[in-house]
Amino acid sequence: MRWTISLMVVPVMTLVSFTMMGRAADLPGIPPETVTDYIHAVIEADRTVYTVHVVERMQMQGGAPAAENWRTQKKTLPLPAQFLKEASDLSSLTGSRVRYRLISLWPINPQNGPDDESEKKGLEAVRERPERSATSTVKIGDQSYFQAIYADRAVSQSCVGCHNTHPHSPKKDFKVGDVMGGLVIEIPLGK
């Protein structure tokens, strides 16, 4: 458990450090594309480590399985998508205003679908060209955000198996390496 919490703290600390760097007196800032690329690299590394070295290892060794009802069912782990959501929720407590979440054209949970036409187009773009992020500027309330959507690929057989067999999954033919959706990262622009 301590290791899992440590994995969640890494993205939070990274986000806080980027926020602090943005306050340096009159120094040119880091381009938002670069910031979201850095954040994406950290999130993807943490999530892949969790998926491959925790979830899959536990399943192969007969340990605690990952399950969507992990909060109520003892001796289970959060699914990798839930792990990411928990980390995102924790990072929002830092006050950094950096937001990230998973979305998909085929969400198991309807809340994980695209919020608008812009996100839908971004998902379609990363599905066609997964090596490139889809970027735009969006307005959320009174704040402008730089938004980057990165391809979210099935990194292991456990991802594919869960999505292909879940009763609420609208798509049941994923393969390892397929783009299953996108990771949306939004950073505030301006002060």
What's the layout of helices and strands?
Layout: H1 2-21, H2 32-60, H3 80-92, E1 99-103, H4 117-128, E2 134-140, E3 143-153, H5 157-165, E4 179-188
Antiparallel strand pairs: 1-4, 2-3, 3-4
Helix pairs in contact: 1-2, 1-3, 2-3
The rough form would be described as globular
Distance between the termini: 37 Å
Helical fraction: 40-55%
Low-confidence stretches: 20-25
Quickly describe the structure.
The protein is of the alpha+beta class and 191 residues long. The protein is built from 5 helices and 4 strands, in the order αααβαββαβ.
Can you describe what's shown?
This protein is of the alpha+beta class. The protein has one domain. The protein has 5 helices and 4 strands. The protein has helices at 2-21, 32-60, 80-92, 117-128, 157-165; strands spanning 99-103, 134-140, 143-153, 179-188. Strands 1-4-3-2 form a 4-stranded antiparallel beta sheet, with helices on both faces.
Features:
single chain, 191 residues, alpha+beta, four-stranded antiparallel sheet, 5 helices
